Amino acid sequence: MCGIVGVTGNKRSVNILLNGLKSLEYRGYDSAGIYVNDQEGHDYLVKRTGRIKNLEQAINEQGDVHGTAGIGHTRWATHGEPSEANAHPQFSNDDRFYLVHNGVIENYQQLKSEYLADVDFKSQTDTEVIVQLVDRFVVNNHMDTRSAMLKVLRLISSDSSYAFVLMDRQQPDTLFVAKNKSPLLIGLGDGYNMAGSDAMSMIKETNRFMELEDHELVIVKPDHISITSFDGEEKKRQPFTVDMDPSAADKGAYPFYMLKEIDEQPAVMRRLVSEYLPADGKPQVEDALLESMASSDHLYIIGAGTSYHAGLVAQRAFEKLTGIHTSVHISSEFAYEHPLLSEKPFFIFLSQSGETADSREVLVNVKKHQWPSLTITNVDKSTLSRESSFSMLIYAGPEIAVASTKAYTAQIAVQAILAKALGMKMGQQAAADFALKEQLAIIANGMQAITDSKDKMAEIAAHYLSKPRNAFYIGRGMDWSVALEAALKLKEISYVQAEGFASGELKHGTIALIENRTPVIGLITQDRTAGLTRSNLEETASRGAATLTIVSRHLANEDDNIVLPDVDPLLTPLLSVVPTQLLAYYTSLGKGLDVDRPRNLAKSVTVQ
Ligand code: G6P
Prior knowledge:
Layout: E1 3-8, H1 13-24, E2 31-37, E3 43-49, H2 52-62, E4 69-75, E5 90-91, E6 97-104, H3 108-115, H4 126-139, H5 145-155, E7 161-168, E8 175-180, E9 185-188, E10 193-196, E11 208-211, E12 216-221, E13 224-229, E14 234-235, E15 240-241, H6 257-263, H7 265-276, H8 287-294, E16 298-303, H9 305-322, E17 325-330, H10 331-334, E18 345-351, H11 357-368, E19 373-377, H12 383-387, E20 390-393, H13 406-425, H14 429-433, H15 436-451, H16 454-465, E21 470-475, H17 478-494, E22 497-502, E23 519-524, H18 527-541, E24 546-552, E25 562-564, H19 573-590
Parallel strand pairs: 16-17, 16-18, 18-19, 19-20, 21-22, 21-23, 23-24, 24-25
Antiparallel strand pairs: 1-4, 1-10, 2-3, 2-4, 5-6, 6-7, 7-8, 8-12, 9-10, 9-11, 11-15, 12-13, 13-14
Helix pairs in contact: 3-4, 4-5, 7-13, 7-15, 8-13, 9-13, 9-17, 15-19, 16-19, 17-19
Bound molecules: 6-O-phosphono-alpha-D-glucopyranose.
C-alpha cells in the first residue's frame, strides 16, 4: 500500500527510483510517479496511472529525464480516484515544492479551509494540501523550508498517519523526510543517501540503514543526515545493516511469485529447524523473552488477515504446551475494543511485514502501559519488531505475492517453537515430549509431496472451483482455523465468494446457501471431530453440494480426494493448508487473473 523512494547525490537517480518502486510493487498500487532534479536547472515530473511499466514507458518516451536527486511513489488510492492528477508527487501551484506521501491526513479539510481557502487545487488528495501549505508558509510568511515543514508537521492532527519526502526546487540536493505511524527508513550510500518505505526498496543500492522515529524531521543530503524532533531537539542515531540477498526477491522461472512461495515452504521449515532447533532439539530462544512470558498470566496474540489466522492455529500449542491462557485477536478490533485484560498480560504480534498499521495501533497502546511484547515477523528491523520488547524472525525470505502463503506456515512453526521453549522453561512435560524437530522434518517432506502433485490440484481447481460463485471450506477446531485461511486465499485471488465455517454451525443457517454443485471442502485432520465433519459434509452432499475432502492419512478412506501424511495434531495445519493454497492459485490462474496482484488488495496495509 503506497510505496516511497527518494535519493539524493546519485546520477542514476531515475533508475534507482524506478528499481525501488518496482520492488515496492508487491504492496499494491494503482498509479505511480517520479520527480527528479539535476541541480543544473532541469527538473522533471512524470506520473501515470496503472503499472510502473506505464511510467517507465512515459519516461523513455520523454527521452531526457535525468537527475541527481528525486522522489518516487506508488499510490493506492485513499482520497480521490486513481488518476494522474491524484498520483504523487503532488506539487505546489508555483511548481517549487514536490511531495510524496503514504498515509492519511485526518484534518486536511480543516487545514485547507483555515489556510488555503484561496488556493486552486489540482487534485482531490490530502497530500496536495500539505505541499501547498508548505509553499504558503515559505512564500507568504517568508519562512525557510525546514521551518515551514516543521510548522506544517505540528499542524497535522496526531491521529493522522504519514511518511513524507519533500523536495524544494531551490534546494535540489535535499530531501525533507518525516513520519508518523507510516513506515519509512533512511538508506546510507557512499556519497549519496536515500529514503524508502522499506529496506527492500533500497537493498540494491545499500544495506546500511538508519531508523527514523515518529515525530522527527530528517534532512537528508548526499553526504549528511540530520535528525531533529518536532520540538527542535537534535538526535544522534547509529546506523544498522540488514543482511538481505537482493536476488531472493526474484521470480526465477516461475510464472508467479505465489507459486514460487508455495514451493519454498519445505525449505523454510528446514531453515527454521536450523535456526531454532539445534542438535539436541531444545529450542534456542532468548532467555529474557521466555522469562518475561513465563511471568505473565495471559498471552494475547494480535494480528491481521493471514497473520491472525496463524495465531488462531497456534493458540492451541501455547495453551497445551505452556498452560498459559491464550487468546487471539484481530488487531483492528482490539485497537478500539478489547476484553477485560488479565493482570499480567503478554502481547504477541504476528505480522509478515512488521508494518501493518492496525497492529501497530495496538502496539503503541501496549507500550504506553509498559506491557511486554514480542513481534514475530518476516522483516528484520521492521517497525513492529523495532518497537516491541522482543522480536523473532520467521526466516521465510521475501514474500512478494499479495496472498500470503509461506509466511503463514512459518509463523505457525515459529509459534510452535516458542510454545515448546516456553513450556520447557516452565517445566511442562508435554512441552518436553513434543518432538518438534522430528515433526518439522516430516512436515517439510510432506509439503514437498503435496507441492509435487500440482497437476492434480490444477485438475481439482478446474473441475470444482472454476465456475461456481460460492465455495465453502468446513472443519472443526484446528481444521476450522485452517478453513478460514483456505477460504481467504480463494476469495483474495480468484474472487470466488468463499467462506470458512465451523462444520457444526452449517446447519444453523449457512446450509441454506448450498445449491446444486456448490463446492464444499471438508478438512479432516483431528481424531475427535473427523466423524462429525464427515457427517456434516454428507448433509451438504444430500442437498446438492459437490464435496471434496482433505484428510490425514490415518483418518482417510479410499474415496477421499487429498490425503496428507500423518503429523502431530497440533501441527496438521502446516500440511492441510498447502493443497488449499494450490487450489486458490490454480483457480485464479484458470480464470486468467493476475495471481500476485489481486484487485483492490495491498500486501502491506499501512493505513488503518
Ligand atoms: C494484508 C495482506 C495479507 C496479510 C495482512 C496482514 O491484508 O494482503 O496477506 O495477511 O495484510 O499483514 P502482516 O504483514 O501484518 O502479516
